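To close the chapter, one final illustration. This time we ask the reader to focus less on the individual chains and more on the assembly as a whole: which components sit near each other, and how the overall shape emerges from the parts.
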Amino acid sequence: MMPFWALIADSFREALDRKIFWVMLCISILVAAAMFCVSFEGTADGSIEELNVFFGAYRVRLSEAAPGTVIPRETIIGGVVYLVMDHVLGGIGILLALIATGSFFPSFLERGAIDLALSKSLSRPLLFLAKYLGSMAFVLVQATVFVGLTFLVVGFRWGMWMPGYLLVIPLMVLLFSYLYCVSAWVAVRTRSTLAAVLVSLGAWVVFVGLQGLGDVFELMPQWKENRTLYTVARVAGWVVPKTQDITYFAGRWSGAPAPADVMPKTRVPTPADRELIDKAGEVDRQRFEQRALPSIGSSLLFEAVVVAAAMWTFSRRDY
Amino acid sequence: MVAITEMTNWAVDLIDVRKTYDRKVQALRGVNIQVGRGEIFGLLGPNGAGKSTLVKIMMTVVRPDHAFGTILGRPLGNRRKLQRIGYLPEGHRFPGYLTGMQLLHYYGALVKVPRTRREANAESLLERVGMTRWADARIDKYSKGMLQRLGIAQALLNDPELVVLDEPTDGLDPLARRETRELLLELKHRGTTVFLNSHLLSELEMVCDRVAILIDGLVARQGTLSELTEHTVEYRIAFSGSVTALQAQLQALGVSIEGGHLSLPGGDMERVNRVIDLLRERGITIESVQPHRFSLEDVLVETLGAQGRAASPGP
Ligand SMILES: Nc1ncnc2c1ncn2[C@@H]1O[C@H](COP(=O)(O)OP(=O)(O)OP(=O)(O)O)[C@@H](O)[C@H]1O
Ligand SMILES: [Mg+2]
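The assembled structure is written out below.
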């Protein structure tokens, strides 16, 4: 175990040495600070009346902006959390992480650098795995800082504690790993940072496209007539990692409502409404929970195949 | 049974090692090399002969196409034994974000040296290679020679039974070279086997017990230093006077005349005395008779010549 941990610790030190690591930390702090500058003032029944930006510098009265609307507190806070999570963390965050970690394998495999690692007591597959997990540690730290800070802001400043939101940390690491396996595989084959970054970003686009392809077919009944094409689209959508599902799950499990639920409502929900909403929410949750296992399972299968291919290449190459 | 006991007597026993890169470059074409325990073994050869390839195969960095043999009594590539070997790769590149001390800890941990021993060894080795002052400086601030010193310390951190050094004196100043030689001899006295690749032939001569000459992926010569240099002894006779009248007779004896001296290849004393008699009969003054031992460099050049090949870099 000692060599394994030594490699992971080394990846960590390498990460700390990269500027982009600190840039990402700064972004996290800035986002949390920006969220801290906003507060919501509401009525006793829990709906929000006023948005207060920069400690009173700007006030937006929601009742004036959109007369007659009532926005439940959880809805708007949940919505903000959802957007931050989906776009900042799941979008820019993952993008920066792929760029930052893209050079980890190439620099590890550089001529003259890899010789010593290969001649020590770890077998090549284990060596690969340690380095792979080491890169993941980079993302784990970043996601923990981001989610931790925003969790505290939402809790202390906005008065809403969402323990489920902490689940976003492992989910983001998972999302990153779906894409990073491609980066590692390309790096092992080419030893090029540029190739690793570009191909993994390209793969992300392709994954997203293939996941949406099936839905496009559903919308276009005339396309569905070509059964072969339809089957290919469906299978492709099933094979690739379900990157799109991750933010979905993150939103559901964290207790934040989906964007559709952020729609303002024209009246205060009655107890009967509440019951209906809760029931719909329950059905929705069950659907997602049923989908979680196949989605994550098939994605991990894809990742395992790519990692195995990379390990195989790494084990057989001369350096 | 005999084979097994014999096998374990060698620290390194390589049989028929072959390697072709990318299906084109034949780097090794059936190399056999034996290194006794506790000796300093030198591998020499022109650029591109395959020296580093052989070392990398020993250290599992490169996979051979074909190879038999043992290292420290275990089959080639045995991970457990790799922990007992120290290695300094050619043109090594260390992570610049570590300090010298951190680097030693890192590589020590990769071969499972316990922390307390790592600490003690790192300290004494840094001292030994004169790097104590730089132990806590980042490696990207090191000069080439400092990197090499650190590399040597790194190779010795696990108290290895066998040390494999690829061009250990590369980038070192003359003083550091001498210190390295002393270090190698010290290792030898402690019973450590040293396997050395070097271009600097005179350096090999000073410390090696045995050498092998690798040319174009084949071992051209292998043996103790005296075995390799003995049979190529020549005698040089310096004289004053004219030998033109004796030219035919001298040439019949295999003597070549070069300016003010005659040279007689081989170690045949009888012949040397006959030549001296000839010269004395003519009243020629003999100023000196000197045995000239061939250096390793001469042996290498001669071997390359015998292979019908100039001492130029390989393809
Ligand atoms: N990774 C590699 N891929 C392809 N060819 C290689 C590789 N490494 C070495 N070679 C080739 O194998 C041959 C032997 O190279 P090697 O590095 O073993 O020589 P060397 O004896 O160590 O040379 P030098 O004295 O210059 O260090 C050379 O022709 C070289 O071009
Ligand atoms: Mg070499």
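The first strand of chain A starts at residue 38 and ends at 42. Chain A has one domain: 2-316. With these observations in hand, you are ready for the problems at the end of the chapter.
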